[in-house]
Amino acid sequence: MQSNAKLFAYNLGGVVPLDQAFLHISDLSIQRGYGVFDFVKVHGNTPLFLDDYLDRFLSSAQQMELQLPLSREELKHTIFLLVQKNGLEVSGLKMILTGGYSDDGFTPVAPNLLITQHPLTLPTQSKVENGIKIITHDYVREIPTAKTINYSMGIRLISQIKAKGAEEVLYHRQGIVSEFPRCNFFIVRQDNTVVTPAENVLPGVTRKRVLEIAGRRYRAEQAKVTLEDIAQAKEAFLTSTTKRVLPIVQVDDTIIGTGKPGDVSLALLQDLIALEEEQVSVAKV
Amino acid sequence: MQSNAKLFAYNLGGVVPLDQAFLHISDLSIQRGYGVFDFVKVHGNTPLFLDDYLDRFLSSAQQMELQLPLSREELKHTIFLLVQKNGLEVSGLKMILTGGYSDDGFTPVAPNLLITQHPLTLPTQSKVENGIKIITHDYVREIPTAKTINYSMGIRLISQIKAKGAEEVLYHRQGIVSEFPRCNFFIVRQDNTVVTPAENVLPGVTRKRVLEIAGRRYRAEQAKVTLEDIAQAKEAFLTSTTKRVLPIVQVDDTIIGTGKPGDVSLALLQDLIALEEEQVSVAKV
Rg of chain A's alpha carbons, rounded to an integer? Predict the structure, then answer.
């Protein structure tokens, strides 16, 4: 259990101390793993790119036929209330919408909404400077465009990732690459084109920003990416809300490019950080 | 929320009134849909085929790398204690093992064990006499041999099932049939051979019993079953702990056999009921 008693959470319609936030075991998340969520990075009192995350959260809910108990404006208001109350410096805010307290343990009813906030640790400088090693696994998420709470496969693979001294696992289906359990994937081709898999992926907010940023300096596109494309790539990196742009230097036994983080990856990371800082400045004005 | 205040549940190490059984929201079932479960039918104080269900529950836990906080004997003891305390006539007993209260919201720690029991409704006589209509959907469960709590797909399909006036959805992958979200599938070929899909299925306890029973009267086998095989079949039925043997008379737009429950299906249902009654008699001696 989270032991930080100073934090507050939104649970079942009210703001409560995090350590007192419980769900009855009839909830469909516990009974059937049924729910959606989203995760926003917060700098001070500013949730970064909040509207993008709300768009995706609402889209996930719709795809899973779950009705949000708050309007979008009420949800936004609740988020700002919680963020102010918790007063964290750099944090992650998580919204979870479950199938609710189901009578028959199967059919969704009135969904339950939870919002939690925790201090956030960004990737260490050493990981950014050295890049990471990843492994691959043949799998496609069931409903790729929705951010469901189903991480059975990703969590089950933790021990394999560790056993191979890697940091993450990249999903592919018969050699066609999609995404990580919690991050998107990019390669940089030899001609500096920045490419991210087009299909069977969650539409990542950081992925979207990086595509925009990359388009200013290079050619940037969503396209089919194969394991063979990775082996031929100049650079590779992952993107996520928490990890921003994190260089990848090894995929299974294949060394990417020079085996060190590439210039394109590092330039995009700097541009993304600048964009985040811009958001915070704008909010402060 | 389950409102039956007279029922008791096992939750986090103790027996408590069901309406007071809660999990903290840091539990990995809520955060990541991570957990396994099993479901046993109980007649009076007798859980039917309990050892088969315990075998499967422990196997699911092992496949998902979750350590049960009780020994098998302790679990059995706890089940009998709860069953006696609740004193229900015909009931379903559910054991859930979650990834526990995870510090980082992703990595499983000490799993949480819950056991609940509810009165059980068997299929109506009318459904048995008339048979049911089902639809099909291209999908294979992620880890078919484990009974995980992940029912994202099954629940998401509820509205499609209803819209088509059907009762259940049968999964297949490119025409090769596997199972229902919560039941196994059988066909009876024109030569009376009873066949159930061999691969990508949960090893159902009722499936196992029906294969045994069928083997006494007919040829019975686990084999590849295609959608085309169904169209050519003499009979079809599903099996589950709750539904026993339930005849299927229509699959999508295809009428099975005569469009009425077949003799083989109904004979197997009678044999299964007899086997269940035998279990209860033995326990009473």
Answer: 19
